[in-house]
Specification:
The protein is mostly helical and about 80 residues long. It has four helices and two strands, in the order ααββαα. The longest helix has 20 residues. It starts with a helix and ends with a helix.
């Protein structure tokens, strides 16, 4: 089981930002992607499909977020 916090850390985002992104995707498709529990989250079958079939544009978007975060961190100070 993973958590939104660990996902946020890997993406260089805050936990509330990741939660909002997931909620927006779920609202857009009208389907639950994850089962949320006190011990973490698990993917539903729809979440597994999204994970396995995610498009190259999503990977590029993740890479862009990471690069922008590293640029903003290196420009501070």
């Amino acid at each position: 089981m993973e958590s939104f916090g660990s996902a946020a850390k890997q993406l260089g985002l805050t936990q509330p930002a990741v939660s909002k992104i997931i909620n927006d995707i779920e609202s857009n498709f009208g389907i639950e992607l994850m089962v949320r529990k006190n011990t973490g989250v698990t993917l539903t079958s729809a979440g597994q499909v999204l994970l396995v079939t995610r498009s190259p544009s999503l990977v590029k978007n993740e890479n862009m977020v990471n690069e922008m975060n590293s640029l903003s961190c290196s420009s501070v100070g």
